[in-house]
Amino acid sequence: MELLSDQGLRVDGRRAHELRNVECRLGVFGRADGSAYLEQGNTRVLATVYGPHEARAAQRRHDVASINCQYRQAVFSGWERGRRAGGGGDRRAQELGALLQNTLESVVLVELYPRSQIDVYVQVLQADGGTYATCVNAATLALIDAGVALRDYVCACSASVLRDQPLVDLNSLETSGAPELTAALLPRSGRLPLLEMSQRFHVDKLGELLDVAETACRDVHTILNRAVRRHVSARSSEK
Amino acid sequence: MKPLVPSTCETNSVVDAVSKGTRLDGRELLDHREATIQFGREYGTCQIRLGNTRALATVRAELGTPRPSRPNEGTLQVAVDVTSTAAPGADRSNDLTVGLERLLERCLRESRCVDQESLCVVADEKVWQLRLHVELLDLGGNACDAAALAALAALCHFRRPHVSVTGGEVRLCPADEAEPVPLAVLHKPVLVTFAFFGDGQHFVADPTEIEERASEGLLTVGMNSYREICTLHLTGKLLLNKQQVLECTELAAARARSLTSQLRRALTADEAERTAIHPFPGLARVELERMATAAASVRLSGAVRGPALTAEQISEMEKEVDEKLSVFRHKDMAAAAEIGQGGASQWGPPSDDEEGDQDEMWPRTAETPAKTAPAASDSDSEGEQTVLHPEDLEPHAEPGTGKGLRCPMPVR
Fold first, then answer.
1. Within an 8 Å CB–CB cutoff, is residue A56 touching chain B?
2. Per-residue pLDDT averaged across A159-177, rounded?
3. pLDDT band at B327 (very low <50, low <70, confident <90, very high)
4. Of the four listed, A45, A60, A121, B115, which is most buried by Cβ atoms within 10 Å?
5. Is A152 an 8 Å CB contact of chain B?
6. Residue B135 pLDDT more than 60?
7. Spatial separation of the C-alpha atoms in residues B115 and B138, rounded to whole Å
8. Å from A235 to nearest chain B CA?
């Protein structure tokens, strides 16, 4: 199966620079301080934020808030059912949780919430490529819904290059067949809080990949921004 | 022990120095520390020293069933351990080991460093399962790079036994029948880490521990000598722009090239040493061990096996074995000598019933012969031997008086 046909169409009929269809909803859980549900194509992620609340003694820091992130992938989310309790699945979850924490720590204004803790829980309901980028986007929306002060949106997207053609927003088939670069962007400053990649590609392609990823992240930003404004105006018109 | 929060003056002095273009250990901002590569006696063991950072990697292979999703590929499992000598107690943070494991997996496994299809013996049934174990013996900053280099060197050094498949039966050939086979390493990725300061304005290559603690974040780039990027990893509260990333990858490319050529030279030198003993390096070890056991058993039991051997013949055999073993022995001792010189044993004669496990507990000094060479070979090649410094023990520790170090064994 060809990942990119001669006419320039990908396996799901998209063109190289097109993102998957994005659907998002904020405030899906009543109990959590902030929550968001995000779909990017077939990847579905749920993010909830609790906090800022009093930090546990071990996590308490006197001058800044501590951010605690947890990444969970549901057993029914992938191609094969079931993850082993220990071993590969758990480690990947731990790694991604730590990565999410690093990304969010650079964007949340932690100096405003000393001695507190902000919990971010991300649950992947369906994984079809680009899960990590979707998690970052969902976490951003949930933080906005919770009213936590942020420096800027964090918009993430995955990118790749296949036969000299850059692609964006890979699905799982494309992820297994081509190297994947996941980048997050703060749109106002244009800086990257996150860079991850798998497999390998030549360094000369890196510049082009970063440009393509940045454009895709800005597109994601437009969508998220629109969703947030729609949600806020809907809430304010309720009252 | 809770991890120490770096003090403000420590952090400030490091950041200040970096902004002026100097570093606390006198290096230039973009200078790397020199890496020393040391291979052990067993194939697939390697110790790397990068300044004060030490990493020891071992590769083991066993036959097993393949993963159902990939029936004709072998597997590579990575495990990283931070030893207690490196970071005592609760300081062995889980995040460090998990992060490092995942980073090494991505760098080595997902970038297809080792050709896993060549590890297949019988499709769907038997494949080679490689286990790569990395121990961080000392944390002096930049554990990532040291661990990755150790892992790569171990993989390049490792030789697996030859297998013969006849009909449906798989047979492992011992080393004296068929030379062990090296792994098919397609490319050699190394990790290069940079630490950023001053809101991303300045960065240093190969940070020491204090620089890591004081930095805002680390960027780890994995590259091979063909200028291909194998990993990119950002940690900490770091915000980068595209220009900095490209700059770092250029520097990483140069470092990767020099490290891979250093690794290639070290591998050739190691191979030359082994072939000096025996033209077939795999056999060298087996033959030596056989000679050593024969010589030792002759000496120990006092009986003569096979044709009658005169005393001169026995001593000649011993001399020959010692000479040849000395090449290998220096590999073990070299590793131990790095840690400390080790003094002569200060213990009195042990009790009779404890002689059995003595060999595993005490380090082999130059006087004791390789008595249990096959059994102890695994622990020897690790290089983690307890070494007693003569100055650490109280002077004139009489056995049995209770002075000197306390030991669990009764000493007469």
1. no
2. 88
3. low
4. A45
5. no
6. yes
7. 31
8. 33
Pairing status of strand B53-64 against strand B126-138:
antiparallel
Does the predicted interface ipTM exceed a cut of 0.85?
yes
Q: Which of A95, A191, A199 sits opposite B239 (nearest CB)?
A: A191
Residue A10: is its pLDDT beyond 80?
yes
Report the SS3 class of residue A164. Answer: coil
Q: What angle do CA B106, B109, B113 make, to 5 degrees?
A: 115
Closest CB to B234 among A80, A194, A204: A194
Please compute the mean of the pLDDT values over residues B75-104 and round it to a whole number.
Answer: 79
Model pTM above 0.80: no
Rounded average pLDDT over A13-25: 92
Over residues B245-269, the mean pLDDT reads 94
Give the whole-angstrom CA distance, residue A41 versus residue B131: 37
Residue B53 — φ and ψ, nearest 5°?
A: -90, 135
Confidence class for position A162, pLDDT limits 50, 70, 90: confident
Which residues lie closer than 8 Å to A48 by C-beta, 6 or more apart? Answer: A29, A32, A34, A35, A120, A121, A123, A142
Inform me whether the C-beta atom of residue B232 falls under 8 Å from chain A C-beta atoms.
Answer: yes
Q: What are φ and ψ of residue A187, in 5° steps? A: -60, -35
**What are the φ/ψ torsions at residue A190 (nearest 5 degrees)?**
75, 20
Q: What is the pLDDT of residues B171-216, one digit of tens each?
A: 888 777 778 889 999 999 999 999 999 888 899 999 998 999 899 9
How far apart CA B27 and CA B208 sit, in angstroms, is 11
Average pLDDT over residues A35-48: 95
Q: What is the CA angle B212-B214-B217, rounded to 5? A: 60
pLDDT of residue B370: 39
B219 touches chain A (CB under 8 A): yes
* Residues present in chain B in total: 412
Task: Say if residues A146 and A116 touch (Cβ distance below 8 Å).
Answer: no
Residue B304 has pLDDT above 90, yes or no: no
User: What's the CA angle centered on A228, arms A227 and A234, to 5 degrees?
Assistant: 90
The full 3-state SS of chain B, as one line of letters, equals CCCCCCCHHHHHHHHHHHHCCCCCCCCCCCCCCCEEEEECCCCCEEEEEECCEEEEEEEEEEEECCCCCCCCCCEEEEEEEECCCCCCHHHCCHHHHHHHHHHHHHHHHHCCCECHHHHEEECCCEEEEEEEEEEEEECCCCHHHHHHHHHHHHHHHCEECEEEEECCEEEEECCCCCCCEECCECCCCEEEEEEEECCCCEEEECCCHHHHHHCCEEEEEEECCCCEEEEEEEEECCCECHHHHHHHHHHHHHHHHHHHHHHHHHHHHHHHHHHHHCCCHHHHHHHHHHHHHHHHHHHHHCCCCCCCCCHHHHHHHHHHHHHHHHHHHHHHHHHHHHHCCCCCCCCCCECHHHCCCHHHHCCCCCCCCCCCHHHHHHHHHHCCCCCCCCCCCCCCCCCCCCCCCCCCCCEC
192-221 in chain A: CB under 8 A from chain B: 192-204, 206-207, 210-211, 214
